[in-house]
Automatic annotation (TrEMBL):
It comes from Gordonia asplenii. It holds the Pfam family Glycos_transf_2. This is Glycosyltransferase family 2 protein. The keyword Transferase applies. One of its GO terms (molecular function) is transferase activity. It comes from the Bacteria. InterPro entries: Glyco_trans_2-like, Nucleotide-diphossugar_trans. Transmembrane segments: none annotated. Residues 7-186 form the Glycosyltransferase 2-like domain. Gene3D superfamilies: Spore Coat Polysaccharide Biosynthesis Protein SpsA, Chain A. Keywords: Transferase.
Length: 305
């Protein structure tokens, strides 16, 4: 008999995060499930240890760092097509007890839900705005260029839907750090667009699911904790430009044609400038942390959204 549920995560030297992910996953659902680890070239031994020590874990090596979306596609391909629901989640997620069963219950309440996402908290308890509108060219540009320096600007506020009450509802897209997906919906839109190396692949997926007639459902009765940004924090010179390139790709794909070329050019230039500023700020923060003896055991993180 095929299980109803499978869980896929992507690792890149995730270390102890992966152990916490798997330990807390055991309390998140009462359903039997298989876990697939799509590894993008870890050198810490954590994925191999997880497969060796846990009967329900399968390790798949992608052959290199092919990005988040591409690796997720590779992991999902290992799951039996008869499995109705596939969870995709970052390895630095800690599951609250029953959180995955809450998502499954909501999926049965919303038969047209292609994706469902929980309420996400950061380690300090802050609620992360994980349920958002799909950005258009104007709102997306306003948020991308001003979000880091003017956090209350109207474009960022509208994009993040921060004024909306935390109730179960359809939204434009949900954070890819933790999603419950109907397998037939994911397959119907050909999964993630692997052109996105990292960042914005979840925005693109939610938008394409919506255009294909599926719903993206925010389920705030399901809670997880996400230590976001540990990979970006280790290498801001690579990860932050990737974020800005993905933001450009998303808008460029949706605003084609020669008459919009000046808009695309302006967007590319603005995002390139913002990327340089963000990298410099992240590098200063890391250098400062390295210089402080009490902080030597902490990883820097970068807020790029």
């Amino acid at each position: 008999m095929t299980d109803q549920l499978a869980v896929v995560t992507v690792t890149y030297s995730s270390g102890d995060y992966l152990t916490t992910f798997l330990d807390t996953l055991a309390t998140a659902t009462t359903h039997s499930h298989r876990v697939v680890i799509a590894d993008n070239g870890s050198d810490d031994g954590a994925p191999e240890r997880a497969e060796r020590e846990r009967d329900n874990v399968t390790l798949v090596r992608t052959g290199g760092n092919i990005g988040y979306g591409g690796a997720m596609n590779r992991g999902v391909a290992e799951v039996d097509p008869g499995v109705e629901f596939v969870v995709i989640a970052n390895p630095d997620v800690a599951w609250e007890p029953g959180s995955l069963d809450e998502l499954l219950d909501a999926a049965h309440r919303w038969p047209r839900a292609g994706s469902l996402g929980p309420l996400i908290r950061e380690p300090d308890g802050t609620v992360y705005p994980s349920a958002r509108r799909v950005p258009d060219l104007i709102s997306g540009t306003g948020h991308a260029l001003l979000g880091a320096v003017w956090k209350s600007n109207p474009w960022t506020t509208a994009y993040r839907e921060e004024s909306s009450a935390p109730v179960e509802r359809p939204v434009g897209w949900l954070s890819g750090s933790c999603l419950l997906l109907r397998r037939n919906a994911f397959d119907a839109v050909d999964g993630f667009d692997s052109r996105y190396f990292m960042y914005m692949e979840d925005v693109d997926l939610g938008d394409r699911l919506g255009k294909a007639g599926w719903l993206n459902i925010f389920v705030p009765t399901s809670h997880i904790v996400h230590t976001k940004g540990h990979a970006a924090g280790r290498n801001p010179e690579k990860m932050l430009p990737a974020h800005h390139e993905s933001a450009y790709r998303f808008q460029a794909d949706r605003n084609p044609g020669p008459w919009r070329a000046p808009l695309r050019l302006a967007l590319r230039a603005g995002l390139a400038a913002r990327s340089k500023v963000a990298v410099a700020a992240a590098r200063r923060a890391l250098d400062k942390a390295d210089a402080a003896p009490a902080n030597h055991d902490q990883e820097g993180t970068s807020n790029v959204d």
